[in-house]
Every structure is written in C-alpha cells, then in structure tokens.
Amino acid sequence: MLEGKYKNSVTVSAFSDYLYFAEENETDDYDIDLYEAKWEYTGKKYGLSLGKQIVRWGKTDQVSPVDTLNPQDFREFIIPDYEERKIPVWMANAKWFSEYFTLEGVLIPFFEESKWDYFGTNWSVFGHVKNELQGAVSDPALKSYINDLSVHETDPDDEAEFAVRLHTTIKNIDLGFTFHWMTEDNPYYKNFPIKNISVNGSFSGSAISSTLGAAVLTDEDVEVEYRKTKAAGFEFETTWEKYGIRGEALWMENQSFLTSSLTSSSHPTVTAVMGVDHTTAGNVYFNFQALYSHIGNYSDDILYFDQDSFSLLGEIKLDLVSDWLQGAIIYNVSLNNNSHYISPYLKYTYVTNLECKVGAGFFLGSENTWFGRYKAYDYLFFNIIYLF
Fold this sequence. Notes:
By secondary structure, this protein is mainly beta.
C-alpha cells in the first residue's frame, strides 16, 4: 500500500495485492487498485467526507455486528486482521455536532460485495469440492459436469444504501444507535445446479459423493444474488476503574445462511457482543469478549450455526523481553460445536520503524463445523512492516 495525505483533508492510497493459492487447483489473483480517495472537512458544527473510504462503526474487535457499512475480503477467510479485511467503498459521510449528541448520515450510491472465492482454494466457499468429487467418481461425463460448474452473480437492481447514527455521551458512557437500509454484502445462493443433495457442512469428496445417489443434475449455474435488508444497532463503551467495557448488538431483518442443499435461506437475526479489556501492572493485556447470536424462524438445514450460538473470543498479549519482544495469542472458541481458531504470534519492534510478526494459526473441530472444515489448513505466517 502507498498512501499520501495533504493537509489532513485529502487522502489517496493505492493497494497492490497478489494472492497465490497452490494445491491441486491453482488460482492466481493479482490486483492493483485505488484503495482510498477521500476529501474530508471537520468544523465546530459540521463534518463531511466524500470519496472512497472506510467508515468504522461499533466498539468490539474481531466480530463487530454494528460495523455494517464496508464489505470485507474473505479470500483468506479470517486470517488477516479485522481492519485489514475491510474494503473501502464510495460514500458520502456527513456529521452534525451539537452540545449533547452527534448525528451522522451515510449515503452509499454503488453496491460493493464482500470478496469470496467460490471454488478451488483452501478458503473458498465450496473448497476443493471439484477436485475432490472428480477423484471420488469414475463416470467421465460426471467428472466433466463437475469441472464445468460455474457461478453467475446478479447485482441488486437498487444499489443505493443509506445509514444514520446517533452518538452521545451520558456521564462516562459513550452510546450509539444506528440504522442501515442496506444490501447484504455476503452472497445469497438462490440456486445450486445439483438437486436433491444434502451435505453436512463438510466439502470433502467422501462427504459430498455420498449424497450423489439421488442427485439430479441440471444445466443451470450456481446463482448468486445480493438481497436488500434493514439493520438496527446499539453500541456502548465505558471504563470501570482500570477496565474498559464495551459492547454492541444488531438486529437484522433478514440474513442469509447456507443450507444443506447448498442454497440459502434468509432469517431475522440478533447478534450481540460484550467485551472487557485490561492491562495489568505487569503490562499483560487481555481482551475478552462473549458473542451471542439468535436466528429467528430457524430451520435444521442451516449449516454451521445453531438457533442460539455462543462464542468466546479475544486476545492476550505480554512483553517477553522489555517492550520490544511481545508474545500474544488470538482466540475464537465456539461453545456450541467445540470448534476453535487459535493464532499465537511474536512481535519484534527493537529496530526503530521496523515491526516483524511471526506466528501460526490453528483450526480445530469436526470437519462439518465453521472452523473445523479448515483444520487441514493450519498455517505459519511472517509479516514485516517498515515505516518511513
């Protein structure tokens, strides 16, 4: 990324991104693009920013239900940090400051979806199912049919979105209330060409091929669309002694979920996160959050999520050598199905302007769970950042 600023009012940045996935299938995906390009003004009573930008709502980390304005890049699932996954979009963001509250309005004229790969990478929606099935069946015609499966995406007819946020402070509690008339950033699978199948969430060859006995093959595409919905949220942040306390909750009129037929169903949802963080006298930092989600009109064919789901997530950090070598662990534990994501790492900052991180990521659980389906793809990483 290359970024430039002019008098704190104009920001322009370019982003060059190359992803290489190599296993049975290879996908080369190179992109160089305008990242952010915005003009902003902040006065005593009014604020305005125009252009391609990221506007962050919500208070919690890793999972932030109220933060609905910008889509995310899931081509590497949740491996990049939450802030790194956000995708800037063209929008107008206006603020009015009064003595008692701030009123914010956002207009997004053009729809931008979250980035997902559908087939052929470790993190794609359907994984390596094409290769897995071709190895599990012997009929050449069926092999060819599976290889030719393709996805057709349909953008919404009405791309515009608008959102409002009321923010105020009562004593030492920051409060926010949001409403977003929106298009879902994540895909709704309207149609899957193989009918009469029922998968359990795993996309291994054995799991899928066992469902093909009664399958009906059609010459259709995987049909993906993006649906309008409404979302209303609440957020708060405060401190108690040396503890930071924050939380947020979001009601969504309809949210899309993948089902066992590999199509989607839409359901009203409520998602809430409550968190606390603290730095001890020994400079140990911990961030602990509890997540709860409820799916209304629940149906048993929804994959990965129960009607009521509970998770624990957060981060623990401590200094190992003075303040230039830090050890940390990021965790996300699903209490419903015993699946987990754990990422320990070391951060080195001894050299001025240089930051190095080395670590690993582990996915644990049954292969039909949200994290467990990636358990064959534990990874190592090395990041280097130099500021100049």
